[in-house]
Amino acid sequence: MTPRHPHRTPLATPLAGAALTLVVIAAAACDRGQSEPPPPTTVTTPTTPAATTEPAPATGAARATPAGAVKIEFKDGDGREVLAFKPKDNGAKVVDGTGAEIVRITAKGDTGDKVKLKGPDDTVLAYIQARDDGSLEIEDPTSKQRLFVFKRQDDGDYKLEDGAGTRLYDVKVRPYGFEIFDSKGDRELYKVKVKGEKTSLRRPDDSTAYATKDPVAAVAVACLGFDALPQPLRLGLYHQVQKHLGRTP
Questions:
Q1: Which of 44, 219, 236, 245 has the highest local Cβ count within 10 Å?
Q2: Phi and psi angles of residue 52, each rounded to the nearest 5 degrees, phi first
C-alpha cells in the first residue's frame, strides 16, 4: 500500500523574496519615470550685501555725536576759534580757544528743563530753569533766588530782566536777525545777522564778536551779547535758549 503524503506549498526563500522586491521597486520606478515630471532644479543665487551709505558730514564745522547733538564752534573776526560747545550725554562743556574749560552745563532730571552751571573748579555757579510760560530763569547757586529772566514778548521781541523785574536788554526782531539794545532801548549794543549758513554777533561798527557756520538759533546767539552777565551765565543761557527757544529765528 502506497503511503499518502499531504500536499505541501513550498515556502518562499529569502533570496526569492528579495528578488521579488527588486522587481516591484524597478517597476514602480519605471512607472514614475513615465508619468511624473522630474523634480525642479533649484538654482541658488549668491547674496550680495546691501551697500552701506556713509552719513553726510555735518554743516560747517559741526561734528555729529552718537546722541545726535553737534559740537558748536564760534570764531572771532579774524577766524580764530574762541568758543566751543561740546555736547555731553547730559549737557555740555564749553571751552575757550585754547581748550580751557569755562563752564559745564549739566541737566537735572530727564527733561533738561533745569540745568546746573559749574566752573572748572567744580563750584556751582548758577541754575537755569525753564518755566511753563516759555521764560528762562537764572537762579543763584542755592537755586532759591532768581537773578535774571529771559522771555519772549507778545510782539516777537525778547527781553532780559533782573530778579526784581528791571529791564536790562531788549532783543528786537529784524529782517536780518535781531538787534540788541540797552535797558533804555535807545542805544544799539549788538546785531545778530544771519546770512546763508553764517550767523554772527556784530558790534555797532559791524565788526564781528562771534561767528559760526554751525546750526544755531539767532536768538540764542543774542545771549552772547549780554555783557552785564558773567560769561559762564551768558554761555549757559545761550545753551538753554538754543534748546528751548531754538525753533524761533
A1: 236
A2: -100, 125
Query: 2.60.120, 2.60.40, 1.10.1760, 2.40.160: which CATH number matches 72-244?
Result: 2.40.160
How is residue 118 written as a grid cell? Answer: 559749574
Instruction: State how far the Cα of 192 lies from the Cα of 210, in Å rounded to an integer.
Output: 10
The answer for 24, left when phi > 0, alpha when psi is -120 to 50, beta otherwise, is: alpha
| Alpha helices, H only, the chain | 14-35, 218-222, 231-244
Q: Residue 246: its pLDDT value, please?
A: 60
10-residue mean pLDDT series, the chain (249 residues): 44 39 38 46 42 32 44 96 94 97 93 93 97 95 97 95 97 97 93 97 97 96 98 97 69
User: What 3-state class would DSSP assign to 109?
Assistant: coil
Q: Is the pTM of this model over 0.85?
A: no
| Contact (Cβ atoms closer than 8 angstroms) between residue 232 and residue 119 | yes
pLDDT for 43 equals: 42
Collapsing DSSP states into helix, strand and coil, what is residue 96? strand
The whole-number pLDDT of residue 109 equals 80
- Kindly tell me the number of DSSP H helices and DSSP E strands found in the chain: 3, 14
Q: What is the rounded CA–CA span in Å between residue 26 and residue 245?
A: 86
CA pair distance 227, 230, nearest whole angstrom:
7
